[in-house]
Amino acid sequence: MLSAETLSQASLHATCSKLHAQRRASFGARPATARANPRGPTSRVGGDRVRCGGSSMPSYREWRDHDPSASGSTVDQLESIELQADVAATMCEAQISMPGPIDGPDYASVTRNLALELVRVTEAAAIQSGRWMGRGDKNAADQAAVDAMRKVLSAVSMDGIVVIGEGEKDEAPMLYCGERIGDGKKPAVDIAVDPLDGTTLTAQGRPGAISVIALAERGSLFDPGPCVYMNKLAAGPGVKHVVDIRNTTRQNIEAIARVLHNGRVQDVSVAILDRPRHDELVQEVRDVGARAFLISDGDVAEAISTAQPQTGIDLMLGIGGTPEGVIAACALKCLGGTFQGILHPRNEEERQLAIAKGYDLDKVLELEDLVASEEIFFAATGVTGGDLLRAVRYTREGAMTHSVVMRNKTGTVRMIETHHKWHKPGLTNLHISQDYSTL
């Protein structure tokens, strides 16, 4: 390949001569039937007909036109040599200088986006657990998601440790806290997984269940320890500076109304888990004049929804699972939103255990406390569908999934619709026995 930026005029002449020598050697003697060109071979470059090198050899196109016995493929190959020679000669004669590098992204700095690999993990979990939708067995649905997620996750090249998983090692055979995932190669990451957020939703065929996974740099994810529950606040980027979990419910709703709804509190929607412990909170929201959107399960999806205007959810409040809170914090950091939490022990025994392990039960955990890394990868796939993601759909040929993929460092958010084919090998097609290292 010619490098026009570095070739001098003399070296261009030398290149031209060298290519013509190759041409003569490959071509042999001039055929008698070919029409000689006294001015040498010509080529149209840049719209002008130019002479190259003064050779009396005919062009290869002329050879092919006048000698039917000439091999078409050979002529085509040799003609490309002539074109290179003509371009070199034209640059010499016209003293053409090639432009410098084209401005654009520095692709040398592009790094691996693990989130695009993780989406296959959540897709596989969603496809398998979705088969249990509406069948009344939440444990079977959850186990199907865990099995699929673990199998596909093992194919991702990384040095991962599960920080948020299915429980302790003696409670869960796979994806337990502390389990090492991957082939041990870089990057070294913490893993937070919820193979099926919304097991009851799936079993009952209700919307809102998703499969979700998040990765962050090693040591950056918050370890909930013995604290299973936390009081949460989640909101989108537009109001992250005006809401605070330490404020009253009225103060937060009125602040959101001023920023997003021209002061109309009746247009503010607040997502709250439908639990008896939240009866007072729901009444507070209604007393202010806002709308309480009650959800039966799946608060990860609802937390993410606060940063997606199309969902209509402005704020999420209430007590829910701490592991789900950490996962939601990863997503909201990618989306530019906010998440706050205060650990909420279920009983005195859990309180004392948390204190003994050094947890501050009065501290407001901000985004940076829950996920300190700037490099965060997140993927989620819809199982039963909802405002955020559509449900898995099964067809005769395969399945269709709808996912969101995010990376905090670059700020990219991708919505991906994937069509899976049963008869084709692939990481998300667990019907086929295959070598996962090659997919």
UniProtKB/TrEMBL annotation:
InterPro entries assigned to the protein according to its UniProt record, in alphabetical order: FBPase_class-2/SBPase (IPR004464)
GO cellular component: cytosol
Entry GO MF terms: fructose 1,6-bisphosphate 1-phosphatase activity; metal ion binding
Superkingdom per UniProt: Eukaryota
GO biological process terms, semicolon-separated: fructose 1,6-bisphosphate metabolic process; gluconeogenesis; glycerol metabolic process
Any coiled-coil regions, as ranges: none
UniProt xrefs under PANTHER family: FRUCTOSE-1,6-BISPHOSPHATASE 1 CLASS 2-RELATED, FRUCTOSE-1,6-BISPHOSPHATASE CLASS 2
Designated name of the protein: Fructose-bisphosphatase
Species for this entry: Pyramimonas obovata
Lineage, broadest ranks: Eukaryota, Viridiplantae, Chlorophyta, Pyramimonadophyceae, Pyramimonadales
